[in-house]
Amino acid sequence: MISAHATARYVRTSAQKAGLVLDLIRGKDVNRALATLKFARKSIAGDIEKVLRSAIANAQQKDGFSGDVDRLYISSCYANQGPSAKRVRPAPMGRAFRVLKRTAHLTVHVAEHPEKVVAVAAAAPAGQPKRRAGKVAASKGAGERRTKDSGQKAKA
Question: Which CATH number is associated with domain 3-112?
Answer without folding.
Answer: 3.90.470.10
